[in-house]
Design a protein that fits this description.
Layout: H1 6-23, H2 28-47, H3 51-69, H4 73-94, H5 99-115, H6 120-135, H7 140-163
Helix pairs in contact: 2-3, 2-4, 3-4, 3-6, 4-5, 5-7
Amino acid sequence: MAGFSLSRTLDAPLARAALRASALGLSARRLLVLGLLIGLLALPAIALGRFWVGFALILASRAAALVGRVNAPELAAKLAAIFFASLPFAFALADPTRALAAAFALFGFVAFVCVRRVDTIVELVCTVLFAVACAVTGWFSLIAYALGIACFVAVGATLAREAT
């Protein structure tokens, strides 16, 4: 019996959504760039303390990006890395006392994208974490440290596997 795979579970609905988007004239590349642009609008919203606006922009951005990812996964991974790097920065701008936590999350995330690609699962986890941080802003530092630690663990595991 095969185990449950969230990625495989999402493949069919995302493929159907990509076909519908294509029928409307929205190519994968257009969806991905649109997702990035919408997502980058979350940066000033969060920085200005408009966390619910940031929350909505994060979700809209990632919806477009997940659909675009189906037909352009390499571009999706690159643009997702840019988008997710902007979010800790936005939280640090909103409250400079969060700068250390934001820097730690960015450090871990940069290390992660140097050794692994941002795939659908990573994108979903990061989306949920930053959406929760927008909904419960007092949790940002905890979320940022947890994300940084998870990134470093994943980096270590990847490098150890490659060394053997």
